[in-house]
Amino acid sequence: MGFSWEDAQAVLAAAADPEKLEEIAQRLSTEEEKEYSKSLIALEKEEVLLKPNPRRWVVLPIVHHEVWNMYKKAEASFWTTEEIDMSADLADWATLDSNEQHFIKHVLAFFAA
Question: What pTM was computed for the model?
Fold first, then answer.
């Protein structure tokens, strides 16, 4: 394939501009590559999430429900602070002896580093 590192950098730099991507596609060496690039560019022009939108960073109202559902599914694979009741932690910490506190501090320090 005739796709160099410079070509890859140019594609990344022009990702938001379909006209620039089309110019880059014309520089590719084979007809097969050109046709493939043109088909990708056509798909990207139709992609709703890639179109300029001044409300892009506004969460509500939810417009793309499939994307929102994927986000919630990904979020569900991690624990969040809302799920954990930490109100009794200080009292529980006080009940530990100094060796237990030392051990827990070092375990937390290990994972924090």
Answer: 0.35
